[in-house]
């Protein structure tokens, strides 16, 4: 152990890998058995840490992964599991394309130019490359516009060394707009049905992300799903709508009390003097700020848990420190070094990440992606490997 590892932590994230596995099993159990599961682990597995997360998903039997780009895909390939499929969800830049071949990665293609470029490279390398075609059914991001999909399939048919492995689309508003999601599903199926030289049952046909599952139809042509959020215990819509999949949070965010002191009423504290103390106050200074991932938008908003009790943030969230009001706590209940829970459960209290995100006027997954490098991820319930 080097010295650095012995220094006590000031701010850290705890990740419950057993809960990740339980969530995965719960989602799989809610889906028909033939549906293949593509675990989406982009952006460092939504900030949870890709190495530990993917290692656990691999132990749980997941064989297909989706990431944002070639660099993330290479990271997963290096974790292990040669032969497992890695789908690159983003567009591949020409300079990145060589790595698709070197690491056996599956790109997403949206244009004839991409089909032609990769086919030429595959021919030059005398090898075959598996690809997924993406159809834009209303998101307006990647994929060929569904009305023009025929052209992309023609180019694909003409390709000599590309192997069509899957076709997919992505929903724009699946968490709330079931009607528009149905429009997208119809456009997707119509585009596929128009292609006479493919057998969809031999391909991966997928559209559903976590939110899509809300309107997932068991009797459709889909045979795969792409799940990120839900496996991490985050429901992208009201829990009640997805009660049939009992997922639990796997992430908590913690820090410690650095100092406790009393301040007189009427003081205007913090940067910008944005918080006027209405009463003689006891404040605790926390060892974390926006340099760790507490959004600055939480300034004068929201609560942290001390001894299971909610204590409001006072003044601006600063880079390394944040002030909370502990006046209402009995004096013996807060002292230097005490653990403070920013997200998660403590002593009967809970701050859900969804709530934390609402205080910051953003979404839970942006919070996860904003927990910084300074914050060590501590893994609970890891399976020991020899
Ligand atoms: C991120 C992503 C997903 C996963 O979405 P969740 O809402 O996290 O389940 C699926 N498909 C694509 C194309 C994505 O970019």
Automatic annotation (TrEMBL):
**Record's GO cellular component terms:** cytosol
Modified positions (N6-(pyridoxal phosphate)lysine) are 42
Cofactor(s) named in the record: pyridoxal 5'-phosphate
Tell me the keywords, alphabetical order. Isomerase, Pyridoxal phosphate
Q: For binding substrate, which residues are annotated in this chain's numbering?
A: 141, 319
Query: NCBIfam families annotated for this entry?
Result: alr
- Annotated function: Catalyzes the interconversion of L-alanine and D-alanine. May also act on other amino acids.
Q: Which family does it belong to?
A: Belongs to the alanine racemase family.
What is this protein identified as? Answer: Alanine racemase
| Natural source organism | Pelagicoccus albus
């Amino acid at each position: 152990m080097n010295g650095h590892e012995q220094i006590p932590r000031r701010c850290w994230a705890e990740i419950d890998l057993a809960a990740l596995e339980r969530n995965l099993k719960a989602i799989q159990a809610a889906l028909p058995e033939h549906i293949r599961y593509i675990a989406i682990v982009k952006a460092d597995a939504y900030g949870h840490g890709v190495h530990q997360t993917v290692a656990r998903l691999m132990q749980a039997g997941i064989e297909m992964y989706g990431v944002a780009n070639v660099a993330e895909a290479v990271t997963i390939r290096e974790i292990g599991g040669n032969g497992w499929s890695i789908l690159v969800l983003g567009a591949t830049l020409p300079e990145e394309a060589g790595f698709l071949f070197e690491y056996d990665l599956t790109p997403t293609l949206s244009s004839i130019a991409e089909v032609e470029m990769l086919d030429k490279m595959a021919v030059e390398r005398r090898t075959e490359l598996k690809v997924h075609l993406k159809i834009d059914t209303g998101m307006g991001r990647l994929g060929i516009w569904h009305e023009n999909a025929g052209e992309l399939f023609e180019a694909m048919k003409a390709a000599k060394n590309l192997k069509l492995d899957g076709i997919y689309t992505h929903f724009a508003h699946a968490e709330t707009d079931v009607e528009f999601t149905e429009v997208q599903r119809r456009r997707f199926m119509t585009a596929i049905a128009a292609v006479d030289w493919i057998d969809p049952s031999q391909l991966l046909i997928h559209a559903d992300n976590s939110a899509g599952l809300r309107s997932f139809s068991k009797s459709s042509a889909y045979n795969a799903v792409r799940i990120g959020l839900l496996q991490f215990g985050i429901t992208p819509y009201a829990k009640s709508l997805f009660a049939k999949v009992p997922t639990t949070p796997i992430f908590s965010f913690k820090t410690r009390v650095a100092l406790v002191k009393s301040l007189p009423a009427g003081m205007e504290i913090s940067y910008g003097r944005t918080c006027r103390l209405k009463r003689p106050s006891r404040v605790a200074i926390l060892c974390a700020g926006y340099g760790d991932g507490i959004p600055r938008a939480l300034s004068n908003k929201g609560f942290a848990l001390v001894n299971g009790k909610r204590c409001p943030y006072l003044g601006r969230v600063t880079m390394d420190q944040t002030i909370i009001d502990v006046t209402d706590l009995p004096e013996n209940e807060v002292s230097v070094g005490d653990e403070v829970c920013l997200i998660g459960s403590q002593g009967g209290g809970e701050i859900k990440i969804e709530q934390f995100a609402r205080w910051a006027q953003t979404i839970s997954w942006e919070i996860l992606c904003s927990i910084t490098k300074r914050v060590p991820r501590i893994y609970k319930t890891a399976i020991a490997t020899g």
